[in-house]
Design goal:
This is Leucine-binding protein domain-containing protein. Pfam families: Peripla_BP_6. Belongs to the leucine-binding protein family. Keywords: Signal. This protein is an alpha/beta fold. The chain is about 45% helix and about 15% strand. It is built from 15 helices and 14 strands. Helix 7 links the parallel strand 6 and strand 7.
């Protein structure tokens, strides 16, 4: 009996030591490399810090397999197949196209997707897509945050009456629901909404901002990211459009905003997390990852906008895995366990502080229906050298976001009839 007990104990220890496998699909190369590499670095560095400092999550090593896809669907499919065969319990996807292509196989194989794609609002609705979580989809809620922030500065939503608030967007890539929600807000509060399509060609940049300057909107919302957003700032300055009348929803390229320096003072950004690296968790990343030569992040890259986006999403992944471990009580994790943990995940201010990230992000809660978390937003302003926070906890306008999401869900279901419906009610065991 004693020998049997010893053998069982050794087997349980071996089983407990099995790493938790997670797969990170990356865009370190290809058309999205300028953003994708930085996001991937943030995800990698935070998770590697947990491995180096804590031995993983819940004392179990975390095995993160990176697979480069370069925004190519065929490469993503091959990476997914390898990840599924390895027993991964969570996959992150870097963009909207890759996320949408993997929806069906992930649902079939019961592997949750943590999508890092902006502009995919359908991915925030668990009643439609139960196997994908899309916390970075801030476009719809972000527009309402931007409008509420502008109204608060003026003295209330009624003060928007008669203003002109334009939207600069990608002609090829913008989600139509983003344009519609701004127009709905304009109709509700009495401001006009001129739309300025950017066809993203080099020759069109100057002409676009010449048109905007001639139209003289009171404010302009930028719906773009990376180098395009950075180019918008530079072109706006060339035609004399004031930077303090610009507010972005998807982060400008850090190099672009730095090039403009003090000339772009007053430019604003809506985000669900802070910029900069003045947090204990970032000190831990320096100590346990960067200083040990385990990071691909340049020396000045920690705290950069896209890097912090990666850290933010890595925190959500790690917290969901930890919740799943507690629910399983030492049994090996399955993808279904991680999905169920995500649907009950709540990170309040106290928990952010415990993670060494006090003030980095606001409280958020996922539910069966809400796979986006719907947190309040920060508004941050460029002071000529760095980002400063100018507004805390600006809430989304939930009624108008929900109404638009209902329409998005209906359209997505019609366009994708083969997608499997949710198989079990919320809260049921996997």
């Amino acid at each position: 009996m004693a020998v049997t007990a010893l053998i069982l104990a050794l087997c349980l220890s071996a089983e407990a030591a099995e790493p938790v496998r997670m797969t990170l699909l990356t865009n370190r190369t290809g058309p999205g490399a300028a953003i994708g590499a930085r996001v991937a670095n943030g995800v990698h560095d935070y998770l590697e810090m947990l491995n180096q400092r804590d031995g993983g999550i819940g004392g179990v090593p975390l095995q993160v397999e990176e697979c480069e896809v370069a925004s190519e669907v065929e490469r993503a499919r091959a990476c997914y197949a390898a990840a599924q065969a390895s027993g991964t319990v969570l996959i992150t996807t870097p963009d909207r196209g890759i996320t949408q292509d993997l929806l069906e196989p992930a649902a079939r194989d019961r592997i949750p997707i943590l999508s890092l794609a902006d502009g995919f609002p359908a991915g925030t609705r668990g009643d439609l897509l139960p196997w994908v979580f899309n916390p970075s989809s801030t476009v719809l809620g972000g527009i309402t945050i931007a409008i509420r922030y502008l109204a608060n500065r003026l003295g209330g939503l009624s003060e928007l009456q008669g203003l002109s608030i334009g939207l600069v967007y990608s002609h090829a890539g913008a989600d139509p629901s983003a344009l519609l929600i701004l127009q709905e807000l304009g109709a509700r509060y009495g401001f006009s909404t001129p739309l300025f399509a950017d066809d993203e060609t080099e020759a069109s940049k100057a002409a676009l901002w010449t048109r905007i300057a001639a139209a003289r909107p009171d404010h302009v919302i930028l719906l773009g990211q990376g180098t395009r957003s950075g180019a918008s700032i530079e072109e706006a300055l060339k035609v004399g459009f004031p930077p303090d009348r610009m507010i972005a929803l998807r982060w400008p390229d850090q190099d672009g905003i730095r090039r403009t320096g003090s000339a772009s003072r007053g430019f604003k950004e809506v985000s669900r997390h802070a910029f900069g690296d003045a947090f204990p968790a970032f000190d831990a990343i320096d100590t346990f990852v960067a200083d040990r030569g385990l990071s691909s992040t340049p020396k000045d890259g920690s705290g950069e906008t896209h890097y912090n986006r990666g850290v933010y999403n890595a925190v959500l992944a790690a917290e969901a895995i930890a919740e799943a471990q507690r629910a399983r009580r030492g049994a090996p994790l399955r993808g279904a366990d991680v999905r169920l943990a995500f649907e009950g995940l709540s990170i309040d201010d106290s928990r952010w502080k415990g993670l060494g990230l006090a003030g980095f992000a606001h409280s958020l809660t996922f539910t069966c229906r809400d796979h986006g978390g719907r947190p309040s937003g920060f508004v941050q302003v460029w002071d000529g050298a760095k980002w400063l926070r100018v507004a805390e906890g600006v809430p989304q306008m939930s009624d108008i976001v929900d109404a638009r999401l209902d329409a998005v869900v209906a359209e997505f279901r019609t366009a994708n009839p083969s997608l499997p419906a949710r198989a079990e009610p919320c809260g049921s065991l996997p």
